[in-house]
Amino acid sequence: xxxxxxxxxxxxxxxxxxxxxxxxxxxxxxxxxxxxxxxxxxxxxxxxxxxxxxxxxxxxxxxxxxxxxxxxxxxxxxxxxxxxxxxxxxxxxxxxxxxxxxxxxxxxxxxxxxxxxxxxxxxxxxxxxxxxxxxxxxxxxxxxxxxxxxxxxxxxxxxxxxxxxxxxxxxxxxxxxx
Length: 178
Fold this sequence. Notes:
Layout: E1 2-7, H1 11-15, E2 22-31, H2 34-45, E3 58-60, H3 88-93, E4 98-101, H4 107-116, E5 119-122, H5 128-132, E6 135-142, E7 151-165, H6 172-177
Parallel strand pairs: 1-2, 2-3, 3-4, 4-5
Antiparallel strand pairs: 2-7, 5-7, 6-7
């Protein structure tokens, strides 16, 4: 089923999503990869504030290519999500509601998704140039020294993703294997 949703997310939107749904996201999402997740985890361990508000937001596991002239961002394909799994349950417990990446997630992430009523989306790997066309604005907001792994605030219009794991724990990858 095709669905059009807005970010940040709300509980009603999330509850209407099912593994396998094709979704187009419009609104604000954030980027963070391995190094940014590590820094956020270190900040939380020191009881420091995070550079972004997690509540109801979506993090896209992305390290974009440099933007060409006249574009807000370069190629914007997803990073393998499993590399963030050791940090993800804590972020979901703090209010993060969605993630965009590619690949399977750990049992701990699945439990945190169910516990917190969240959703995991996949973007199509290898389609970064196409995905970048749905990004209308890009601004580095934290950890600029990390270069491509800095945290960015993105404005997206009809950003195409697939629900891989819904809030009930239904997992598209597992369904396909069966």
